[in-house]
Amino acid sequence: MNMATGDIRSNKVIMKEFPKVELHRHLEGTFHLPTLHRIAMQNGLPYTDDMDAFKSAVQFPKDSEPDFLTFLSKFKNDWYRSHQDVHDIVYDSVRHFSDDGLFYIELRFSPEHFAFHNDFDRMEITRIVIDAANAAAAEANVLIRYLVTFNRGKQNQYEMIDLYRTIRGLAIPEIVGIDLAGDETQYPPDQFTEFFRTVKEDGVYGTTIHAGEVSPAEQVWESIDRLHAGRIGHGTSTIDDEALQKRLIDEGIVLEQCITSNYQTGSWVDEQNHPLGRLYRSGVPVTINSDDPTIQDTDLTDDYIKACSYFDLSFDDLEKLNLIAIEGAFLPDREKSELRKKYLAAVKQFKDRFLVD
Ligand SMILES: [Zn+2]
Deepest in the core among 90, 206, 218, 252, taking most CB within 10 A? Predict the structure, then answer.
């Protein structure tokens, strides 16, 4: 690799342009802050006009030690008073995805998050979120699909099954997967076996489980064996378990890893030795993701720059990591191969523009 390329890998303006496939980002963690602030003011929520003060109230504190529960505490759901509020925050947030060079994203969201405070109808709210995000993604020229997030601790698995059936009944083709998130220390996988048996029997959606983020590798095994996970959110503890790594390789189970988020939650504090680099070199299917860029005060490009710098990844490596993400996408094979073709063409364009020998 020549020097010029080395410089480019830390150049944020250029790295933003690199086409990115992202499998793990929460809509509730990627809000466009000016719109959120406007909604908060309009609805009389207790924040000041001052944008800096608002930012420090809603983002993970810069001076905080890494802490999982502090991180989770930033996800508030009492912003909205109307369907219009929900539409506006979703539309404005997704509209900005192209700033990060997003090419394809499986964006996850929790209908409960948007509906809970006002007890909005969950079906209606799901439609509003998808319609607003579809329109914004089309305008931003980003390909988008959705995962529905269910939150441990907010509902038991029988309530989850009810909501799941409601959403499945909508038969929205852009919804391709189901995600389990929230506090994995208090709510281990065995509390959700019925729910994920139902999802598997239906065979309509892919399944991804947040596991091994702040819990041992055992929870990743259980998520695969008992919850039928097709992908794993984070799975940092996989680095401790070679048999598990072999299982992921053999079955093509993709880890959705998030370097900055893992620092802030305390999942993996020593960023420079984050497992992503070693797992990638051992052939484990890993991917680079942002998780909750607004809460983290960061973006996906920052995670790419970190990955390049910590693990000395080349543009060929980045391309491979994105092809792994496409392979792990919850899409039919035909759509995956179409996406792969388009993605490779976009990367070639990037290389023609920025990489010179
Ligand atoms: Zn997550």
Answer: 90
